[in-house]
Amino acid sequence: xxxxxxxxxxxxxxxxxxxxxxxxxxxxxxxxxxxxxxxxxxxxxxxxxxxxxxxxxxxxxxxxxxxxxxxxxxxxxxxxxxxxxxxxxxxxxxxxxxxxxxxxxxxxxxxxxxxxxxxxxxxxxxxxxxxxxxxxxxxxxxxxxxxxxxxxxxxxxxxxxxxxxxxxxxxxxxxxxxxxxxxxxxxxxxxxxxxxxxxxxxxxxxxxxxxxxxxxxxxxxxxxxxxxxxxxxxxxxxxxxxxxxxxxxxxxxxxxxxxxxx
Length: 262
Prior knowledge:
Blueprint: H1 6-11, E1 14-18, H2 26-35, E2 40-46, E3 65-70, E4 73-79, H3 83-94, E5 101-108, H4 115-118, H5 120-130, E6 135-140, H6 150-165, E7 172-178, E8 188-191, E9 198-207, E10 213-222, H7 231-236, E11 239-246, H8 252-259
Parallel strand pairs: 1-2, 1-5, 2-4, 5-6, 6-7, 8-11
Antiparallel strand pairs: 3-4, 7-11, 9-10
């Protein structure tokens, strides 16, 4: 169990950080350095990249935890599982007290529209939300690991500070997407909805050196409309997208309709 100095915890927010790009990604390192300015930060993240694993949990093999050092200093704990595993393990076993907020990211690659359902980054925040903890997922809209993520981490810091002051509904998290552009070209911030964009999926068939078939997943993304109220359209047009995501899965409209058949 990880303990912190009780006196310091009373003065500064206790922040759990995870991601899906893995504990050695540049995004998580950048955001941790910023968050240390305002709080006590503990990092518990996947040991390897877990992109698009969604809200999967490990139930058929043991989870192993390893200390990770970066730049000669203790950085955090690597877990041999998914982002949701990391957050659940942290909250159920590893942390001595409940975090004030959970931050997931910074992810390399945008998590908007239907991608929200597949995203390990968003799922880590979702797991925190299920425990009744304020949770935010951050993504920068570039897969380039060499992209200068410093501005994105500044944005993440400011939004985290605002979130700490706001009383979140228990069933809501924030999903933040930051355009991969120079900060001078950012037009502002939009409070958005989850967009209706979708993927046309396909698989590329190939053969290995032994002439055995294998398949590589791919697809083409399509926007459903051009409304700036949608997260995918907002970031495309140079806005930081902040989306309140609520996980109420019941279709109220269909529920009311079928109630008539009781």
